[in-house]
Design a protein that fits this description.
Strand 4 (about 120-130) and strand 5 form a beta hairpin. Helices cover about 35% and strands about 20% of the residues. The strands form seven sheets. Strands 14, 15, 16, 17, 18, 19 and 20 form a seven-stranded antiparallel beta sheet that branches. By secondary structure, it is of the alpha+beta class. It has five domains: about 5-65, Helix Hairpins; about 85-315, DNA ligase/mRNA capping enzyme (D-amino Acid Aminotransferase, Chain A, domain 1), CATH 3.30.470; about 320-395, OB fold (Dihydrolipoamide Acetyltransferase, E2P) (Beta Barrel); about 435-615, Orthogonal Bundle (DNA polymerase, domain 1), CATH 1.10.150; about 625-695, BRCT domain (Rossmann fold, 3-Layer(aba) Sandwich), CATH 3.40.50. The model has no long low-confidence stretch (mean pLDDT about 90). It starts with 6 loop residues before the first helix and ends with a helix. The chain is built from 25 helices and 26 strands. The structure holds 2-(butylsulfanyl)adenosine (IVH). 2-(butylsulfanyl)adenosine binds near residues 83, 85, 311 and 313.
Length: about 700
C-alpha cells in the first residue's frame, strides 16, 4: 500500500478525481469540476508523472493530449468480427423485416432497440480488467488498424471502466465529429489558409488515421457505444437495450436518442421522429438502426453472410449528391443583391429532385471555383435551399491540351436584368445592381415585399401577377398599384396567357373570368387603411425590418418628422446605429422616394399618427420585459404593445439583462429560468394594475 501522502497515492487520487470529472462531464452531462480546476489538477498529475516515470500509465488522463508518434498502425484481428447491417430505403422493406421476424420467432409484436445510425467511423475498444488496452478500426470487418494512441485522446472514451468490470470487454461504437465543431474547425482552417474537411465523417476518419496522436488530440471527436464484441467474465442482461444501459453505467457515452419500440408502427414512428430532429442533432446521422431487443430472439434469427438478420438500418434520403453544372446564373433581389446560382442536371437529394443550388455570393464562387460542366456535390438539409458544397476536381472537363475547358466564372459587371452596373461596396460580400427601382427585378421584389402579409398585406398579390404587372409595364412604383382597375388585371392576364400559350378554357369559350381581379382590386383597396409601422416596413428601406419600423413609428409618431430627420436625429432611436441611420436618411433624401410617398398619400393610403413616444421617456424606459404563459384579459401581443407604449423593450428570451418577467398561466421554462436568475416576476394582476396606473 502506498503511504497516504506518497507521490503514488497522490497520483492515484488525482487520476480518480479527473476520471470522475470526465465521466460527469461527458457521460452524465453534469459538470462538477470547473475547467480551470480540472486543468490545475491535470498539470499537477503531469508534473508528478514526469518526476516519477515509474508511475506512468498509458491510461492516465494525461495521455489525452497524445503520445509521441510510433510509425505505422499495426493490424488487429477482431476476435468477434465487426458486422455490417442490411439497409432499407422504404417502409415496405421495414414491414418485410418485421414480418420475417414475426414468422420465425412467433412474436407478433417484437420489441426493438431503436438507435440513430451515426455517420462516423466504426471502432472496437478492448478493456481487460477494466483498463483500456486496445482500440481498432473496423477495417474489412475481420481485421482493422490499431489506433489505440489516437483513441486515448478522445475525451469521451473511458480509459478505465467504472464499477465492477468484466475480465474482457469489447465495446463497439462510432467515433464522430460533432457538426458544430466541424463547422468551427473548417472556419478556422479557411482563416489559416488550410484545406477544410469535406464533411464531419471524413473529419472523424481523417483524424483517427493521423500517425501523430498529438494531432488527433487537437481534433474535436466524440464517441458513442452501440454494440458488444468479445465478453468474458460477465453475465449479460437478456436484452440489448439493457446492455446499453449497463454500458452507460460502465462509463460509455450512449446516444441520448436510443429508445425501444414495438412492431412496425413503433419503428416507423421512431424513423419519423428522428428524421424530424435530424438537423437539430449535434452529429450527422444517415438513418436509424432497429435491433431485435431480446438476445434469445437474436440467436433464433441468426446471420446471413456478414449481416445479422435481427437488425436493419433504415436510411434517410442522402443529403449530399453529385450532379453536373449546366450553367451559372444570377438572381437580382429586392435590394439589388446579385446572387449566383447553378442550373444543374436534376438530382435526387434530401428526398426531393432539385435542379438549382445557390452559390450564395461572389466570394463563395471564388472559393469553390465552380465552372460550367463541373461535377459538383450539392447538399440539401431540411428546408434550407440546396447549396453547392464542393467541386469534384478530377471530373472537370478538359480540352485537347488537358486544360480546363471553361474559364473561372466571373460575376457579371452589368445587371442581367436592367444593364446597370453591378458594384460591391468596400467590405461587403454581396454585389448589388445599382439600378434601384429602375431595375425590373428589383421592382418585382419591392412590390412583392410591399404587398406581403406583414407589410401592406394585399391578399392575392403573388409573385406571378407582380412579374406580369412589371413586365407589361402596368406598375413602376408601389403607388401605381392603387391605380389598377379590374380591366387592367384582366387585360394583363390575357397578355400573359397569350405569351405563355396557356389560354384558359373559359376564355376560349368567349367568357372572361373576372372574379379574381375583383378580389385583387378589393384587396388593394383594403390595404389603404394601414399603420405607420407597416407603411415604413413596406417601403423596403434597406435594414429597416419590422422591429426597426415599429421603433421608428413610436419614436417619431408621424411620417413627416421621419422624412425630415437627419442621421443624428435618427440615431436617437433605440437600435438605430450609424449605418441604419444613414440608409434611412438616404432613402428619404431621394426625390424619387418622396414622390412615391406623395403618390401613396394621394391614392388614399392612410394611417394613424400621434405624438412621439420616446422610449427614453416612459416609466419603463430602458427596461427589458419578457412575457411568458397565457394571460386571461389580453393576448401576449397586446400586453407587449401596452408595455412598449410605456417605454419598455419586449424580448423573447430571459437573460441577466431582463428587468422583469410577466408570467401568465402555464408559464414554463422561461419562468423557471427567471426564478433561477432571481428576476422580478409579475403576475397578471400586477401587470394590469401597473398599466392602468399609467394610463394604458
Ligand atoms: S450496429 C451487428 N448500431 O453502421 C451490427 N451500427 O452498416 C453492427 N452504425 O459499421 C453495427 N450507427 O459504422 C450499429 N447504432 C448503430 C450504428 C451503426 C452507425 C454503422 C457502423 C457499422 C455500420 C453497419
Amino acid at each position: 500500500m502506498a503511504k497516504k501522502d506518497s507521490p503514488k497515492a497522490r497520483v492515484a487520487e488525482l487520476r480518480r478525481v479527473l476520471e470522475e470529472a470526465s465521466y460527469r462531464y461527458y457521460i452524465l452531462d453534469e459538470p462538477t469540476l470547473a475547467d480551470p480546476e480540472y486543468d490545475r489538477l491535470l498539470r499537477e498529475l503531469a508534473e508528478l508523472e514526469e518526476a516519477h516515470p515509474e508511475l506512468c500509465d498509458a491510461n492516465s488522463p494525461t495521455m489525452r493530449v497524445g503520445a509521441a508518434p510510433s510509425g505505422k498502425f499495426a493490424t488487429v484481428v477482431h476476435e468477434v468480427p465487426m458486422l455490417s447491417l442490411g439497409n432499407a430505403f422504404s417502409d415496405d422493406k421495414v414491414r418485410d423485416f418485421v414480418a420475417r421476424i414475426g414468422k420465425e420467432t412467433g412474436d407478433e409484436a417484437p420489441v426493438f432497440s431503436t438507435e440513430p445510425k451515426l455517420d462516423g467511423l466504426a471502432i472496437s475498444l478492448r478493456y481487460e480488467d477494466g483498463a483500456f488496452v486496445r482500440g481498432a478500426t473496423r477495417g474489412d470487418g475481420s481485421a482493422g488498424e490499431d489506433v489505440s494512441a489516437n483513441l486515448r485522446t478522445v475525451r469521451s472514451i473511458p480509459l478505465r471502466l467504472r464499477g465492477k468490470a468484466p475480465k474482457v470487454l469489447e465495446v463497439r461504437g462510432e467515433v464522430v465529429m460533432p457538426k458544430a465543431d466541424f463547422e468551427r474547425w473548417n472556419e478556422a482552417a479557411r482563416a489559416r489558409g488550410d484545406k477544410p474537411m469535406a464533411n464531419p465523417r471524413n473529419g472523424a476518419a481523417g483524424s483517427l488515421r493521423q500517425l501523430d496522436p498529438r494531432v488527433t488530440a487537437q481534433r474535436p471527436l466524440a464517441f458513442f457505444a452501440y454494440a458488444l464484441g468479445a465478453v468474458e467474465g460477465a453475465t449479460l442482461p437478456p436484452t440489448h437495450s439493457e446492455t446499453l444501459a449497463w454500458l452507460r453505467e460502465l462509463g460509455f457515452p450512449v446516444s441520448a436518442e436510443v429508445d425501444v419500440a414495438t412492431g412496425v408502427e413503433g419503428l416507423l414512428a421512431y424513423y419519423e421522429r428522428i428524421g424530424a430532429r435530424r438537423d437539430a442533432l449535434p452529429y450527422d446521422i444517415d438513418g436509424v438502426v432497429y435491433k431485435l431487443d431480446r438476445y434469445d430472439q437474436q440467436r433464433a434469427m441468426g446471420f446471413v453472410s456478414r449481416a445479422p438478420r435481427w437488425a436493419l438500418a433504415h436510411k434517410f434520403p442522402a443529403q449530399e449528391e453529385a450532379t453536373v453544372v449546366e450553367s451559372i446564373e444570377v438572381n437580382v433581389g429586392r435590394t439589388g443583391a446579385v446572387t449566383p446560382w447553378v442550373l444543374m442536371q436534376p438530382v435526387h437529394v434530401g428526398g426531393v429532385t432539385v435542379t438549382r443550388a445557390t452559390l450564395h455570393n461572389a466570394d463563395q464562387v471564388a472559393r469553390l471555383d465552380v465552372r460550367k460542366g463541373d461535377t459538383v456535390i450539392v447538399r440539401r438539409a431540411g428546408d434550407v435551399i440546396p447549396e453547392v458544397v464542393r467541386v469534384v476536381e478530377d471530373k472537370r472537363p478538359l480540352d485537347a491540351k488537358g486544360r480546363p475547358l471553361h474559364p473561372p466564372y466571373q460575376l457579371p459587371t452589368e445587371c442581367p436584368v436592367c444593364g446597370s452596373a453591378v458594384e460591391r461596396e468596400e467590405g461587403e460580400v454581396v454585389a448589388r445592381c445599382t439600378g434601384g427601382l429602375y431595375c425590373p427585378a428589383q421592382r418585382v421584389q419591392a412590390l412583392f415585399h410591399f404587398g406581403s402579409r406583414r407589410a401592406m398585406d394585399i391578399e392575392g398579390l403573388g409573385e406571378r401577377f407582380i412579374t406580369a404587372l412589371v413586365e407589361f409595364d402596368y406598375v413602376r412604383t408601389v403607388a401605381d398599384l392603387y391605380r389598377l382597375t379590374v380591366d387592367d388585371f384582366v387585360e394583363m392576364k390575357r397578355r400573359a396567357d397569350e405569351r405563355d400559350g396557356t389560354v384558359p378554357a373559359t376564355a376560349k369559350a368567349g367568357k372572361v373570368a373576372t372574379r379574381w381581379a375583383e378580389n385583387l382590386v378589393a384587396g388593394i383597396e383594403a390595404s389603404k387603411a394601414s399603420s405607420l409601422e407597416r407603411v415604413l416596413y413596406a417601403l423596403g428601406i434597406r435594414d429597416v425590418g419590422e422591429s426597426t419600423a415599429k421603433t421608428l413609428a413610436r419614436h417619431f409618431g408621424a411620417l413627416d418628422p421621419i422624412m425630415e430627420a437627419d442621421e443624428e436625429a435618427l440615431q436617437q432611436v433605440p437600435d438605430v446605429g450609424p449605418v441604419v441611420a444613414k440608409r434611412i436618411a438616404h432613402f428619404f433624401a431621394e426625390p424619387h422616394n418622396r414622390e412615391v410617398i406623395a403618390a401613396l398619400r394621394a391614392a388614399g393610403v392612410h394611417w394613424k399618427e400621434g405624438p412621439p413616444r420616446r422610449a427614453s421617456e416612459g416609466p419603463l424606459a430602458g427596461q427589458t420585459v419578457v412575457l411568458t404563459g397565457g394571460l386571461a384579459s389580453m393576448t401576449r401581443e397586446q400586453a407587449g404593445e401596452r408595455l412598449e407604449a410605456l417605454g419598455a423593450k419586449v424580448s423573447g428570451s430571459v437573460s441577466k439583462k431582463t428587468s422583469f418577467v410577466v408570467a401568465g398561466e402555464a408559464a414554463g421554462s422561461k419562468l423557471a429560468k427567471a426564478r433561477d436568475l432571481g428576476l422580478d416576476i409579475w403576475d397578471e394582476a400586477r401587470l394590469i394594475a401597473f398599466l392602468e396606473e399609467h394610463g394604458q
